[in-house]
Amino acid sequence: MSVKDIFDSMDYGPAPEDAAEAFAWLVDQGDRFGHFIDGAFTAPGDGFLSKNPATGETLATLTQATQDDVDAAVQAARQAQPKWTRLGGYKRAKYLYALARLLQKHSRLFAVLETLDNGKPIRESRDIDIPLVQRHFYFHAGMAQLMDTELPDRDPLGVCGQIIPWNFPLLMLAWKVAPALATGNTVVLKPAEYTSLTALLFADICRQAGLPKGVVNIVTGDGAVGEMIVAHPGIDKIAFTGSTEVGRRIRAATAGSGKGLTLELGGKSPYVVFDDADIDSAIEGLVDAIWFNQGQVCCAGSRLLVQEGIAQIFLSRLKARMEMLRIGNPLDKCIDVGAIVDPVQLQAITEMVDACAHGEVFKVNAQLPAEGCFYPPTLITGLEPSHRLMQEEIFGPVLVSTTFRTPDEAVQLANNSRYGLAASVWTENLNLALDVAPKLTAGVVWVNATNLFDAAAGFGGVRESGFGREGGWDGLRAYTKPRRRVRQLTRIEPNPAKNGDPEGIDQTAKLYVGGKQTRPDGGYSRNVWSKTGKLLGQAPIANRKDIRNAVEAARGAAGGWAKTTGHLRAQILYYIAENLSRRAREFAARIDAMKGGRQGAKEVEASLRRLFTWAAWADKFDGQVHGVPIRGVAMAMREPVGVIGTFCADEAPLLGLVSVMGPAMAMGNSCVLVASEPYPLAATDFYQVLETSDVPGGVVNILTGSHEELAKPMASHMDVDAVWSFSSSDLSGLIERESADNLKRTWVNNGRARDWYEEDSRAFLEATTEVKTVWVPYGE
Ligand code: NAI
Q1: pTM for this one?
Q2: Which atom of ligand 1 is nearest to the CA of 297?
Q3: Which of 36, 192, 597, 735 could form a disulfide with 218 if both were Cys (CB 3.0 to 4.6 A apart)?
Q4: At 530, phi and psi to the nearest 5?
């Protein structure tokens, strides 16, 4: 036998991890768990079994929470919250630090329990999940410490309902609990029904850390308990990670409630390999992308796109590598691929793959354990981009693959998805990587790497992968709100007619779509009367067709506008201000005629200032480079959201419009603005200012008409990326509900007034941009 033969045939012996401590802990708890409410475990109630998916054995009996349990948990969190906030950042930091230390001291117990409960290889829970959990609490101890000085004008939201999935049970808990606690919120968390044990061990750690009662509450149970949390009136924010389908339901269920919402949902992330990539590294990366955690990872690199010239060699080397993957007992330290979380998930994966009648299916021919939920690593090649398996999340160890010829085609294929969570790009040409990364529709891009995470770097998606970021300053801000007094907004009705005398000659405004003034599709207009009841002119009544036309124009302009420089966009905004200032008196008179009083000049002056503010910001809202603990950088790039539809403020017909148009334009978005309903003529006069200011057609589109009638077509339009409402009509619930289909970002006023004279740039900068984190490791 040659040395080569020995190397080729050498098998690893088993290296099992001892699970005795974890079992002892379960026995100590009596193998039956209640909930953790107000600092203590409740008596176990009617429940369900928690099983080890690798063996099928029962680990413990958990309690299905009732409405009373959820009420008690919310009440405990409510009661604890003001005191927890008043403790201040330093004292909260000390608690978070204590939690981090305890997590470290019990790291092996957590890792083993996680593996027993979830089926993931102990190597992963020990070396990835639990260290990242600790890092998250350490990092957020720091955030708590800095919160008072760095976010002095922000308050916590209150009580946060947090619903997490089963793929990274403790890590998802850490992602949710640490920033919430750091910022002075209290939480009611529901772990996934398959994997609640490490959350309950965490509850034990909270007790050991002396965390004040009620700050962390954990209730167990299935989706019905999740629904109770979502619907509970005592909850101020829902943070959810899980399937897109449930995310959509939660969006609809919270619509109009005023609750904050962040959703981290599914993905079908592309893994793009160019022909100059280091093939061996790219194949090793792929093992981490799709066989890490059995592929049950929201950002798994589950769609391989490989450049045609190297496809054959790449796939054959990949298959050879797949054959080397060791599948089996997750507690064995030599195992690469463990168990699927539950028979239900195993069945879902099996059915999806078995139903695939196209392409070529390559399954690793390994001896799977006789018991438990195991699925062999699988590669499917030769599928059409539109094939179900190329589009839908399988959430298992199954990779689908296709080829591309040029970088442009790679980008097109990569973006051919309703999701937008993550992407990997493999090439030795950094120029190509940094050209492609910004073009990919994804919240995270890894260059020559995959599945890198850190507490300092934002994580989250675009499109149907959800909204909001977790980690870093953006993640932290999502648990806070601005500190200001709340004033209710009352609906402003159009002025009634008193006499029919028109002012001057007939002035019939049109709509402004694609850089042109166009007649409304329906052919209807309405009279606009002055405060004193004189006829000022007519404003068109836009309908759903006009919304469609405006969105089409905005979409057409969006790509080109996003590519312009901030310098150019600043110049155009200054030019708009210049042209508006020439007609300042005319606009002031118009506003006074519509609204009555003599505030018009002040509003025009504030509008000019606002345009200057946005011209100033156009080239200054910089990204960041995060100091992540790898050799490399994680760059947080600010990208435009896309097409933003807005219902403008009624009370400030010019300032309200300029205040939303300015940031949208400055950050590279195009917009569809529905002008103030009672006072539309300042907006229609504004068309001429836009026409003379070099604004490219389609970047700004303005419609007039009924806010209530236009809200539905705008919010349900699949090609709109974000919808905002500052209208005095009550649109908030409708917009949030209708936006659920494609999970567009929303920003609604929930019936609260905004002081348009106050500068609030940060809120608009954040709403008009999306963070993309691009990880670029370097060195060896
Ligand atoms: P899921 O989205 O149903 O469950 C996630 C969490 O939400 C669990 O705690 C569950 O109890 C809770 N939940 C379920 N229905 C709810 C409702 N109506 N209201 C509030 N909470 C609710 O995910 P599931 O069933 O565990 O997995 C199904 C598929 O979802 C997977 O095959 C995978 O495609 C995807 N998924 C994606 C995850 C991600 O990280 N993006 C994580 C887990 C699943």
Answers
A1: 0.96
A2: 40
A3: 36
A4: -75, 170
